[in-house]
Design a protein that fits this description.
heterodimer, A: alpha+beta, six-stranded mixed β-sheet, five-stranded antiparallel β-sheet, B: mainly alpha, 7 helices, globular
Chain lengths: ~625, ~170
C-alpha cells in the first residue's frame, strides 16, 4: 500500500472494500505519515460536519412547496417519515431528537452492519485503485464486485463508551413557537461535547450542531429593513467592543510596562550598596520565583550565583555595606541589622515589598526616597570582583558556584543577592532599554507627525510667497550700474519691488506719507531727465525715465496710498513729462522741484506693485507696475 | 430526435414526501454552499421547481442524490425561484425570498473560521465536501449530485479536504 491522500480520504469515509481496508489498517500501524494524514483528514471532516444546520418550519415548507407547485393551497403537508412521535406542530429535526432517521446526515452505529449483515441493495461500495500521483492511469471499477455498504462502519472498540453518561439533548428554546428569534439561545444543548474519539469517528459521536430555524415573518412590511438594521447594529457593536478591548489592552500594557520598569530600578544606599526597589504593589522580578515558597536558610543556595556569608551573627561588627566593600554607611538612620529572625525567614515570602518582617531591616523607610543611581559598568565589574573574591580558592575565576561547605546565606544575604542578581546578567539595563524602546515605538507615530509638520512648515516658509516689501537696504544691495562703462545692468540689477498699502517697517510716517519706498541708485549728480515714456503690456505697465548723465542718481520710489506713485530723483533736472496715452494704469503725471530733487507724482487708476531698476547705455530708470 | 419536453409528474405525493424529509438538509447544504441563507432558499426553490419538471426514473431509490443534484445545479447556475426581475425596474423593486428567512444572528450569519475557509475552496470541491461531510452522501451519491463519476468525486473530496485544511490552518492562527 502506497501512501496516498486519496486512499486515506476513502479510508476515512469508509469507502474502501474490506480487503483494502485491512491493508490500510496494516499500513497505518507502521507509517507515521499516514497516521498524521488520517488525523488531519478526520479533523477536517469533523469541522465541516459541525457546521450549523438550518431548520425550516412546517408553514414555510408548505409555502415553499405551494409556490413551486407541488401542492395546493388547501393540501395538507405530509408528515415527516422520521417525525418524533408525540411531537408538536413543528417537530424537532432528527439530529435533535436523539434518534436516527432519513434526514440524519450521518449514520449512527448500526448493529446489523457491525455484525456483518449483508449489504443493502444499491449501496455497494466500489473498489478502485487509489491515485498515487505516479501517472498510474485511470481508476477502474471492477465489475460485479459488491463488497458492502458505503455506510458500513466498524467500531474498533465497541466497549469504549461504557461508563460515559448518555447525552441529554434538549430542544433549544429558540425553536419554541412564539419566542423571539433574535434572542441568544441557551448554548446548553449546543455545548454538549463528548470526548473526541480518534479520527473520523468523532462525527458519529459528537453532539448535534446548532440549528438555525427559518421562522415565519409575522408582518413582512419593514421586516427586511429591520433585519438589515439589526445586522448593521450588531456589526457596529462588535466593532466598538473590539476597539474598546484594544484600547483597554493597550492601556493595561502601558501601565504594566511602567510598573515593570519601576520594579527593575536598582536603588542604592548612600554608601553604594544595592537595594531592591521598594515599589509597592509590584512583585520583584528577581524574587518572583521565590515569592510563594521561601526555603529555609540552609537551602537558600542559588545554583548560578555566588553565596555570600552575610549573616549578621558571624560579623556582628560589620555592616552590610562594609561587607560589600562600599565602606560604612554615612547616614545615621542606618543601624546594624538585628539578628536574623528565623521564624520570619521561614515564613512564606510575600509578593509585595515591605510586608515581610525583614524588609524593614533591608530597606528602611527613610531610604526609600534617597539617592538613586543606576550602576555603571565599573560598579558592575567591581561588584563582580568582590563577589568572586569571597569564593573559595578552589574555584577558578568566573566560577560562581558556591564553595563546598560554605555557610548558607541568610535572609539578608538572600535579599541582597536577589537585588544584585540582575547585575550579573545585565538584566536591568536590557530590560529598561527594552521598555524605553517600547515606549519609543508607541510614540513613533507622534514623533513622525511632529517631524513631518516641522518639515512642511520649513518648506512653506522657504518657498512661500513673501509679501514683505523690500526695504531700502534690500534695494540698495543691488546697486545700479554707475557710468556708461559698465555692462548691461539688467542682469546684474534685480528690480526692487514694493507693494502699495503695506508698511515698510522703519519708513512708515503718518499718512498720506509714502507707504513703501524703494531706494536705488549710486548717488550720481548732474543728471538730466530727458523724458518719460510709457509702455503697456497685458498685466504690466512700464514707465521709462530717459536720463542723460554718467552715474545713476539716487531714486526713491514710493506709493502714497493706493493711487499715487511718487518718484524722487535726487540731484537731477528735467522738464515736464509727457502724459500717458492710456489711462488704464497711470492717469496723469506731474513734476515738481523740491530743492535739488525732482519729484514725479503719478496718479494711478488702481493699486499696483512697483519694481524699479536702472538700465545703462543709455542710462534710464525703468519702473514696472504690476 | 431528443425529446426535451418536460416530464410532468401526475402524482407528486412521493416527491413531496421526499422533499419534506430532506428539505432541512438541502437548505443547510445550500446555505453553506453559497454562503447566504436568503440565496440558499431561492436556489433550493429553483432546484425543486426544476426537479418537479424533470423527475428521475426511480424516485424511491435515487431521489435523494437527485434532489441534491438539482439544488447543486441551481446554485451553480444561479437559478432562483421566483426569478429576479431584469431591466431597470429591478433598481426600484426589492424582491423578497419566497420563504422569508429571519436571520438568526447566533448561527446563520455567524461568519466563523470554518465558513471563511470553506468559501475559499472552489465550488465543485466545496460542494463535494459538503455533500459528503455535511449531508452524508456516499461517493456514488456525491457523483450523482455533482454529475461526475464516483472516482472523480473521491478525487474532488480528497483535494477539497487538503485545500480546506490548509486554508483553515492558515487563517485560524
Amino acid at each position: 500500500v502506497k501512501c496516498s491522500l486519496l486512499q486515506l480520504s476513502c479510508y476515512v469515509d469508509g469507502e474502501l472494500n474490506p480487503q483494502q481496508r485491512g491493508q490500510m489498517d496494516a499500513h497505518l500501524v507502521g507509517c507515521n505519515r499516514c497516521r498524521g494524514g488520517l488525523a488531519y483528514l478526520g479533523e477536517e471532516a469533523h469541522r465541516v460536519s459541525s457546521l450549523a444546520r438550518v431548520h425550516v418550519p412546517d408553514h414555510s415548507v408548505h409555502e415553499l412547496l405551494e409556490m413551486v407547485g407541488l401542492i395546493g393551497a388547501a393540501d395538507p403537508l405530509p408528515e415527516r417519515s422520521n417525525a418524533v412521535p408525540g411531537g408538536t406542530d413543528s417537530p424537532a429535526p432528527p439530529w435533535l431528537s436523539g434518534g436516527s432517521g432519513g434526514a440524519l446526515p450521518w449514520d449512527p452505529r448500526r448493529a446489523e452492519a457491525e455484525a456483518g449483515a449483508p449489504p443493502e441493495e444499491g449501496g455497494e461500495a466500489f473498489d478502485f485503485v487509489p491515485f498515487d500521483g505516479g501517472g498510474g492511469g485511470e481508476f477502474s471499477m471492477p465489475e460485479g464486485e459488491v463488497t458492502g455498504s458505503a455506510y458500513r462502519w466498524t467500531d474498533p472498540d465497541p466497549g469504549r463508551d461504557e461508563g460515559i453518561p448518555p447525552i441529554q439533548l434538549s430542544r433549544p428554546t429558540y425553536l419554541v413557537e412564539g419566542t423571539d428569534p433574535f434572542e441568544v439561545p441557551d448554548p446548553g444543548p449546543e455545548t454538549t461535547t463528548v470526548d473526541p474519539p480518534h479520527g473520523y469517528e468523532a462525527s458519529s459521536h459528537s453532539a448535534a450542531p446548532p440549528v438555525t430555524e427559518l421562522t415565519p415573518e409575522p408582518a413582512r412590511a419593514g421586516a427586511f429593513a429591520e433585519t438589515g438594521v439589526r445586522s448593521l447594529a450588531g456589526e457596529a457593536r462588535s466593532l466598538f467592543r473590539r476597539v474598546v478591548e484594544r484600547i483597554s489592552t493597550e492601556r493595561a500594557l502601558a501601565g504594566n510596562h511602567q510598573d515593570i520598569e519601576a520594579s527593575l530600578e536598582v536603588r542604592t544606599t548612600p554608601g553604594g550598596s544595592l537595594l531592591p526597589s521598594p515599589v509597592s504593589g509590584v512583585a520583584e522580578p528577581a524574587a518572583a520565583a521565590q515569592a510563594q515558597v521561601w526555603p529555609a536558610p540552609s537551602q537558600q543556595v542559588h545554583p548560578s550565583q555566588p553565596v555570600l556569608d552575610l549573616e549578621p551573627a558571624t560579623h556582628p561588627s560589620r555592616s552590610v555595606a562594609e561587607e560589600l566593600g562600599h565602606g560604612p554607611l554615612s547616614t545615621s538612620t542606618w543601624s546594624p541589622p538585628p539578628p536574623a529572625n528565623e521564624a520570619a525567614d521561614l515564613a512564606p515570602r510575600p509578593a509585595v515589598w515591605g510586608t515581610h518582617p525583614n524588609d524593614a531591616v533591608e530597606a528602611p523607610a527613610e531610604l526609600a526616597g534617597r539617592s538613586q543611581r543606576t550602576p555603571t559598568d565599573d560598579d558592575i565589574s567591581a561588584s563582580m570582583d568582590r563577589l568572586r573574591s569571597t569564593m573559595g580558592p578552589s574555584h577558578p575565576a568566573g566560577d560562581v558556584r558556591p564553595a563546598p561547605g560554605a555557610p548558607a546565606v541568610g535572609a539578608l544575604g538572600a535579599r541582597l543577592r536577589d537585588a544584585a542578581a540582575p547585575l550579573w546578567d545585565r538584566r536591568p539595563a536590557v530590560a529598561i532599554s527594552s521598555v524605553q524602546a517600547r515606549h519609543l515605538r508607541r510614540e513613533r507615530p507622534l514623533i513622525a507627525f511632529a517631524g513631518v509638520t516641522a518639515v512642511v512648515l520649513m518648506v512653506g516658509l522657504a518657498t512661500g510667497r513673501s509679501e514683505t516689501p523690500v526695504t531700502g537696504a534690500t534695494a540698495q544691495s543691488h546697486p545700479a550700474p554707475a557710468g556708461g562703462g559698465q555692462t548691461n545692468g539688467k542682469a546684474a540689477a534685480a528690480p526692487a519691488v514694493a507693494a502699495p498699502g503695506q508698511q515698510p517697517g522703519s519708513a512708515a510716517p503718518a499718512a498720506p506719507q509714502a507707504a513703501s519706498v524703494i531706494s536705488i541708485g549710486s548717488g550720481g549728480t548732474g543728471v538730466k531727465v530727458a523724458g518719460v515714456r510709457y509702455g503697456a503690456h497685458p498685466g504690466d505697465f512700464r514707465i521709462v525715465f530717459d536720463m542723460n548723465g554718467g552715474a545713476a542718481p539716487n531714486v526713491a520710489v514710493a506709493t502714497v496710498g493706493t493711487d499715487v506713485l511718487r518718484v524722487t530723483v535726487s540731484g537731477a533736472t528735467g522738464g515736464s513729462p509727457a502724459q500717458p496715452s492710456t489711462t488704464a494704469v497711470v492717469t496723469s503725471v506731474k513734476v515738481t522741484h523740491s530743492g535739488a530733487d525732482l519729484v514725479y507724482e503719478f496718479q494711478l487708476a488702481h493699486a499696483v506693485q512697483v519694481a524699479a531698476a536702472f538700465e545703462s547705455s543709455p542710462l534710464r530708470l525703468v519702473l514696472d507696475l504690476h | 430526435m431528443v425529446n426535451v419536453t418536460p416530464h410532468v409528474l401526475h402524482d407528486t405525493s412521493d416527491l413531496v414526501a421526499l422533499v419534506r424529509d430532506h428539505l432541512d438538509e438541502m437548505v443547510s447544504y445550500a446555505t453553506h454552499l453559497v454562503g447566504d441563507p436568503d440565496d440558499a432558499v431561492e436556489f433550493v426553490a429553483g432546484g425543486l421547481q426544476h426537479a418537479s419538471r424533470f423527475p428521475p426514473a426511480q424516485l424511491s431509490s435515487g431521489g435523494r442524490p437527485w434532489l441534491y443534484r438539482a439544488v447543486t445545479r441551481a446554485c451553480r447556475q444561479q437559478l432562483r425561484y421566483p426569478p429576479r426581475p431584469h431591466g431597470p425596474a429591478r433598481l426600484f423593486r426589492r424582491t423578497r425570498p419566497p420563504v422569508h428567512v429571519e436571520i438568526d444572528a447566533t448561527a446563520a450569519e455567524r461568519m466563523n473560521t470554518v465558513k471563511r475557509a470553506l468559501m475559499t475552496v472552489p465550488f465543485d470541491r466545496r460542494a463535494a465536501l459538503l455533500l459528503r461531510d455535511l449531508a452524508g452522501l456516499s461517493y456514488r451519491d456525491v457523483g450523482v449530485a455533482l454529475e461526475t463519476s464516483p472516482e472523480a468525486a473521491a478525487r474532488l473530496l480528497a483535494g477539497a479536504r487538503r485545500q480546506f485544511g490548509a486554508v483553515y490552518r492558515e487563517i485560524a492562527l
